[in-house]
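ok posting inputs for the alpha-D-glucopyranuronic acid job
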Amino acid sequence: MPALKGCYLMIHFSRFFAFVLSAAASLTFAANFGPAGFIYEENQVPPYTTSDPLRCQDGSLVKDVQTWENKRRPELLEIFSREVYGRTPGGRLAGMHWEETSVDRAALGGQAVRREITLWFTENKNGPKARLLIYQPPGNAGKHAPWPVFLGLNFFGNQSVANDPAITLSPAWMRPSAEFHVVENRATEKTRGVHAGRWSIETVVARGYATATLYCGDLSEDRSEGLVRDVGALFKTKAVNERAPDEWGAIGIWAWGLSRIMDYFENDPELDASRVAVHGHSRLGKAALWAGAQDPRFALVISNNSGCGGAALSKRIFGETVQRINGSFPFWFAVNFRNYNGREDKLPIDQHELIGLIAPRPVYVASAQEDRWADPKGEYLGAKLSEPVYALYGKTGLGVKEMPALHYPVHGDGLAYHLRAGKHDINTYDWTRYLDYADRVLKKP
Ligand code: GCU
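and the output
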């Protein structure tokens, strides 16, 4: 009997351990993808219906470019402004001005020209300002003059994008990061080049492009307090929870900043403002898409792992949800977006319509296989389901029926997509594809 009892105990113990092991395994499993308690498997996605981008609010169907541009497109822009990102205060600023604060025509060991430009958004130099960093190929652009440009915001200050000791260290507030050497919310010398791999500057410049970047926190700090400082303060933005329901948030401010940089490009004779690719990773990819949707001057828009509120369809509720993103980052979107917490099915739009707003200009959406939090398939569908808008312009869009397999980039007519192995990031695999596509859609023949 005692032996039997022991045997029972052993069985119980082994069951218990098996349970603990499997629970731990499923926790790590979820941890690899994102926080536990969210959908990471396709067979768990509940049924959902996506809206037809060409169906107007009055029920009529858009059949031509004119109706799209005069009726449906403004309708969609209004819905995204009111319900998702908040309204962007209009246009150029009379007092905006700039100054080139440094230039080195033999930077990166002679491989590039490096320039730093300070942009002031008001006539008064005490108002908000942002520090733009530009690298471009050395010498004369020849038949490619002036240089086409990749423009993107960065997470940890300009000094983080290249191993170049001459870049001015950002003095601005920053989210803490032990990994990237941000100490007490400030960049340290050790932050130099920490994201060099994410920018591939030597490669981009060697391929004949300029690359320009600005720290997102110069426009609006990536925290609630940011809304009432810098650019937010300039436009008298209210505190995060006191905002009018359709007032903008940080993503709106970042997108606005990208357009102001475009205003600057239009005045820089070395850069070609008609050939600018606006790009962004993750939260900054959301901003790049919103900038591209609002500002038709961007010739190409690149969304790298932009996920929820970016290229991924919200209605799939795969990975990050509307409730979760509004909870974790209450200052990113308009207060109205919170009306869809746990009610994605009630959204009058979905993210494929954001991409449709960019048509017929090309959009490149990229996902990473392990980045389930951002929902790779949802990102693919964001691009795919915008195709009817491209069709109005005689373009096929992606032109594939199924989601492309791993490492099978699809560079279509108006839309491009790839899924790469690995985690939430932007690396040389991504850059090589973006450059290939840009050669096709931005380079002069
Ligand atoms: C978080 C957030 C995402 C965002 C990402 C990032 O994971 O939930 O929405 O895209 O941060 O910006 O890296």
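notes: The mean pLDDT is 93. The pocket of alpha-D-glucopyranuronic acid is lined by residues 282-283, 307-308, 320, 325, 328, 373 (CB under 6 Å).
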